[in-house]
Design a protein that fits this description.
It contains 18 helices and 22 strands. The protein is α+β, with helices and mostly antiparallel strands. It has two domains: 233 residues, Nucleotidyltransferase, domain 5, CATH 3.30.420; 218 residues, 2-Layer Sandwich (Nucleotidyltransferase, domain 5). The longest helix is centred in the C-terminal third of the chain and has 24 residues.
């Protein structure tokens, strides 16, 4: 079977061709494109028309290479959504990094409180502009927009609908909105009513592997076939976790613009300890729950590269990592989730300002900035993993790492050292693999997730990184914990 996985993140998208049989599993990238928020009428938004055009171009490449396709599925980052009426998009979706996305956050917290939010949704998100914050802001500040809408579609479903798929909801990405009950696996309508958020625009929620119908005639005309659209585990992290060869002794770490570290479970954890630790329950494939925390990830590094490029000094990752290797260890640390790191302004300047403000040595060149970021990300991940280990049994003794971080040898070793756990790095394209796996399950080629993960483990290389005996990481975790506490 020939499957196309379209994985779109907050900085770029990739179209993959997957070929799956009952005994083999192969995935290859066939097209890549950039995806950044654009400024439009005073808002940072996603350019949906351009995304749609790039998706169709990539699918056409995959169709030609495979001589016909069976299914197509789209996964994206979470949080953001489009409002449509009669199938037409009312305006481009706001990016969660837009400063106005959390305009009424304080009102939400004053109305229902953090504990009520956690009990109702299993999510402890007080910083990132989840769908809940954005929708509440619209309901308060621009209610006419909701009055005109007949459907809210999260980004994967919005894009699938524009390709001809049935407009619906999918449970893994819906669970990231802070608007879904993780026990019932459906919208938390009582909570939304308390916040005066209308629920008539919310779509029905369906599980990963749901068929959404054949592509529309406009898309089919560009192809040699008429493949079905499938809802995969459409949150990119849900797909990434599905694509990792997980076992009961492993935590997962999905690396991209965001880092997501967690463990896979059969049921949500809604205990006092979970609430105090700030973990979230997001839904996964095969009725699983991903108990996790989000960390602002390689967005920071990519923003630095953009700043250096804009200054006329473009640089590749290999050169940056080579420069970072020669820098002394753990000189300065930053909290990747500090509110001072934003979409506006030079990221290297923001990092230097943070170090100056916290009385640390200030990184002066690119290597020092990159070393600071990589060690900070490894240390923050170690802190989060310690928090998770305190509330689940058994405590994970290794990390299954997927995403772009797999290619970063320096980061992988720093992660093993900081956490004191073996890191099994790979596959790189875990998100695409999980997306294709979901499609193969829907097609009946693979009978279950466990079998699919076995195929993945046999098909893709995994590199192990053992932790060093350097005892300085305990001090680094305490330093960063104190910086976080002072925020």
């Amino acid at each position: 079977m020939n499957h196309v996985a379209i994985d779109i993140g907050a900085s770029g998208g990739t179209v993959y061709l997957g070929r799956v049989t009952s005994e083999t599993f192969a995935v290859e990238a066939v097209d890549r494109f950039e995806n950044f928020p654009v400024e439009e009428n005073g808002r940072y938004v996603w350019d949906v028309e351009t995304l749609e055009r790039r998706i169709v171009d990539g699918v056409a490449i995959a169709d030609e290479r495979a001589n016909g396709l069976d299914t197509i599925a789209i996964d994206t980052w979470g949080l953001d959504f489009g409002l449509v009426t009669d199938g037409s998009l009312l305006r481009n979706p706001t990016s969660y990094r837009d400063p106005e996305a959390t305009a009424t956050k304080d009102t939400v917290l004053e109305t229902v409180g953090k504990r009520r939010l956690f009990e109702a949704t299993g999510i402890t998100n007080w910083r990132t502009p989840n769908t809940l914050w954005q929708l509440h802001t619209i309901a308060r500040n621009d209610p006419s927009l909701l009055d005109r809408a007949d459907r809210l579609l999260l980004m994967p479903q919005l894009l699938s609908a524009r390709l001809g798929g049935r407009p619906t909801g999918e449970v893994t990405i819906a669970s990231t909105t802070q608007m879904v009950d993780p026990v019932d696996r459906d919208w938390a309508t009582d909570l939304l009513a308390e916040l005066s958020i209308p629920t008539d625009v919310l779509p029905d929620l369906e599980g990963p592997g749901t068929t959404l119908g054949a592509v529309g005639s406009d898309v089919a005309s560009a192809l040699s076939s008429s493949p079905d659209l499938v809802a995969p585990a459409s949150h990119d992290t849900a797909s990434a976790v599905a694509g990792l060869p997980l076992t009961d002794d492993a935590a997962f770490l999905s690396t991209g613009s965001w880092f997501v570290v967690g463990v896979e479970r059969s049921d949500p954890v809604l205990s006092d300890d979970a609430f105090e630790s700030g973990v979230s329950n997001e839904l996964g494939v095969d009725d699983t729950v991903r108990l996790l925390k989000n960390v602002n990830g390689f967005f920071l590094l990519e923003a630095c590269r953009n700043a250096w490029r804009d200054a006329g000094k473009p640089v590749g990752y290999d050169r940056l990592l080579a420069e970072a290797r020669d820098v002394p260890s753990r000189t300065a640390l930053v909290d990747p989730d500090d509110d001072s790191f934003g979409i506006d302004g030079s990221m290297p300047a923001q990092i230097r300002a943070y170090c100056r403000r916290t009385d640390q040595p200030v990184p002066s060149d690119r290597g020092e900035v990159v070393r600071c970021l990589l060690e900070s990300l490894a240390t923050k991940t170690a802190i989060v993993l310690d928090e998770l280990s305190a509330i689940v049994t058994p405590s994970p003794n290794r990390i299954a790492l997927g995403g772009g971080g797999v290619r970063n040898d320096l980061f992988c070793q720093l992660l093993a050292d900081a956490t004191g756990r073996r890191v099994d790095a790979g596959p790189v394209e875990a998100t695409a693999i999980g997306n294709v796996l979901t499609q193969a399950l829907a097609a009946g080629t693979v009978p279950d997730v466990e079998t699919g993960r076995g195929l993945v483990a046999d098909a893709f290389p995994i590199r192990a990184y053992e932790p060093s005996t350097d005892d300085g990481w305990g001090s680094a975790k305490r330093r960063l914990a104190n910086l976080i506490a002072d925020d």
